[in-house]
Amino acid sequence: MKNTLYRALAIVTLSISLFSCSNDDDNNVSGNGKLILEFDNAYGANDLILNTQGNVTSNNEVLKISLVKYIISNVVLTKADGSTFTYPKSKSYFIADESSAAGREFELTDVPAGDYVKVKFGIGVDKAQWELGAAGQDDFLAQADAAGMMWTWAAGYKFLAFEGTFTSPTVTTATPFMIHTGKTGTDYNYTEVTVDMPTKALVRTTITPEVHLITDLSKIIDGKNKIKLSDNNTNGMGAMIMGGTNLPLITENISAMFRVDHVHND
């Protein structure tokens, strides 16, 4: 009887010890590591294929997407203990580009070791940084210009560029569409997103986690706010949405199009 009791006490003691060690993992790590953010574009439940894939909206419009680019900025990582690490703004500008392998994965360096459970980022360049001018964005102005992510007709960035052709019950010939978000008039149209990680991203000096995010592009015009391209087909020349009442609605949609699918701790 005593032996059984001693065994039970030993098991309980070992369990408490292991639990304590598990909870202390994040406190015992030190140094800096790296973390990779991977953006994987999709349309609804399907992986995105440029130019050929027909993507059907709830308004029965069929989109063939030829270009997807968006600016990721202002990355903030949250640890399991609730503390945060703000990635330096001077390094925190990236252009996601479906057509380029370099535009899908972005490496964050000098990240304090720890167990991370959330990531927050902006879509676009925040107003405070824009008002600092070139000094506030280092060489990102030139990078954005080379990538076609600057307005040609006004000063400022394109936060998102979404282009292709569409057809609908009323537009039977493939017709261009072009959606560009950014500062228009008094609307700045910058938005931030916070997403939870399904498993912890374990940043260590010897481990570089890869956070795999899915970007559901259907949300741009077919999210909370439903935008009909057919209604924006000006004189049959194409649906060009770069301002007006639809752009703030699209910005609201954009904030809901990201989720973390999984985390690789390799």
Structural description of this entry:
It is a single chain. With 266 residues, the protein is an alpha+beta fold. It is built from five helices and 14 strands. It has helices at residues 2-28, 127-131, 140-146, 219-222, 246-254; strands at 32-43, 46-47, 55-56, 62-79, 84-86, 93-97, 105-112, 114-123, 158-167, 175-182, 191-203, 210-216, 239-241, 258-264. Strands 3, 4, 5, 6, 8, 9, 10, 11 and 13 form a nine-stranded mixed β-sheet that branches. Strands 1, 2, 7, 12 and 14 form a five-stranded mixed β-sheet that branches. The model is unreliable at 8-24 (pLDDT under 50). Keywords: Signal. It holds the Pfam family MbnP.
Keywords:
alpha+beta, MbnP-like_dom, signal, 9-stranded mixed β-sheet, 5-stranded mixed β-sheet, 266 residues, Copper-binding protein MbnP-like domain-containing protein
